[in-house]
Description:
Region (Disordered): 96-146
Helix content: 55-70%
CATH class of the domain at 148-264: Alpha Beta
Keywords: Hydrolase, Protease, Thiol protease
Number of strands: 8
Order of helices and strands: HHEEHHEEEEEE
Amino acid sequence: MASNAHIPSHRKPRSRARNLAVRAGVAGGVLGTLALTAGSASAVGEEAADSAAGTTTAQLPVITGDIATTSERTATSLEMSAAQYELEAAQQAAAKKAAEHAADEAEKKAKAEERRRAEEARRAAAAQAAEERASRSSERTALAAAPASGTVGELVSFLRGQVGKAYVMGASGPSSYDCSGLVQTAFGQIGVSLPRVSQSQSTAGTQVSVSALQPGDILYWGGAGSAHHVAVYVGGGQYIDAANPEKGVVVQNVSDWPPDGATRVL
């Protein structure tokens, strides 16, 4: 008992029941504080969630805008692809047209070149023909200048005198003849000099129509300048020639073997 007398009155020990009540109150306060804190945290969480939801809702137009932009880009890309296709098609069409034009021009040039060559060939042929005519004209002048010591009658008389003689290739008389040898020798009898071969004899003198023959005209078979047989017209629709080895020198009818042409040297 003596120890309790020294404890101050304001520090006197509390009763156990009071101490329990105090502790319970403290615990309750702590729990209340925790509850308030949790409530505040919950409220803050709900507000954050509401804020996030609001933010998401506000961003929807932006997403919609991105989708629209993507669609526009896709449409623009398709338009560009179509434009590129049209451009390539136009380029191909232009290239094809250019190739066709080049082919047409090449064909025109080829035809023009062909016409030019044909014209050159025609001119060359005309020049050659003119030269041949000039040559024949010179021959006619030379023949005309030669003295005519006989007449057509003498020519025909000589030819008739050779009828029945033999045909021998390359012979010029007096016992045998070939066709051009007989003609050359017969004209030589009246002072007219003629070439030896039938090709040259067919271009001597002046070309005349077979329908307008006169005695003394030279008849030929084949072309002028390329004749393969000659004879002399003696009048009455007949000619005399050294026909062939079987016939020899004979009188024949023009109608039996019509000549291809005739030339006149008298």
